[in-house]
Amino acid sequence: MTAPAALDLPVPRLLVWRHGRTEWNATGRFQGQMDPPLDAEGRAQAARTAPHLVATGLGPATTVVVASDLVRAADTATALTDALGVPLRLDGRLREHGLGCWEGLTRDEVAERHPEQYADWLAGRPVHGRGGEQSADVARRALAALQDLPPAEVAVVVTHGGTAGRLIEALLELGPQHRRVFGPLANCGWSELARHGERWRLMRHNTVVAALPGSLEGPVPGRPATAPVDAAATPEGAAPPPSQDADAVL
User: Fold this and answer.
1) 189 Cα distance to chain centroid
2) What are phi and psi of 153, to 5 degrees?
3) Do the Cβ atoms of 174 and 208 come closer than 8 Å?
């Protein structure tokens, strides 16, 4: 994907949001384009993150929300579209990186059955022989999906760990030698990119809204229950995804 094509988007600001947790994420199973649903924690992540996204300056008249058509991404996105009162666009071009014969296997199973492929994956090298997709093709289709959006001030792109990584790299014009310069998105983590002149800039990365400890839950004295979320209070620099989260480091 050439730089001019990557820059030719109908929106100047992007929030790239990874879906909430699934049971497969929690157990280290590669999902790829298979379609496990959010687990209870994933649904809770989406519910508590959506208001923080709104507080970054999203409004129903200025925001378009587009998601992968896989259920874990679509259901995550619905938490935000319900809060904003805007329609949800689904686009299969935002699906996860197709992983061929790895899909449905755990990390340990891949390491045992395909040790050379697994070693290449850990090292960030191209993985040959598993089928699925090449990284450049994932970036190309994701960018094409964004080029087809209607004009808006901001687009929220609800996608997957591998696809999010390839999309961010393409927008920042990072070549294959710079893959994984940025850490992966945690479940329900998001990154913000903005266009400045002829380039895109990464404004924040892997922002995650953590659950409050039980002792801190409940209404805050002196603050109305309906008070808007303070965007400045959104925690930054979140911890990396759990080591068993296979799809986070595609």
Assistant:
1) 7
2) -75, -30
3) no
**Choice among 23, 41, 96, 205 that is catalytic:** 96
Please give the DSSP secondary-structure letter assigned to residue 153: S
- Does the pTM of the predicted model rise above 0.70? yes
Number of residues in the chain: 250
- Read off the pLDDT of residues 55-94 as tens digits, 9 standing for 90 and up: 999 999 999 999 999 999 999 999 999 999 999 999 999 9
Query: Among residues 19, 52, 114, 205, which one is catalytic?
Result: 19
Task: Give the C-alpha separation, 186 to 37, whole Å.
Answer: 16
Q: CB count, 10 Å around CB of 96? A: 28
Phi, psi of 58 (to 5 degrees): -80, 145
| Residue 19 annotated as catalytic | yes
Residue type, 109: E
Q: Which phi and psi angles does 188 have, rounded to 5°? A: 65, 15
pLDDT digits (tens, 9 = 90+) for 92-105: 999 999 999 999 99
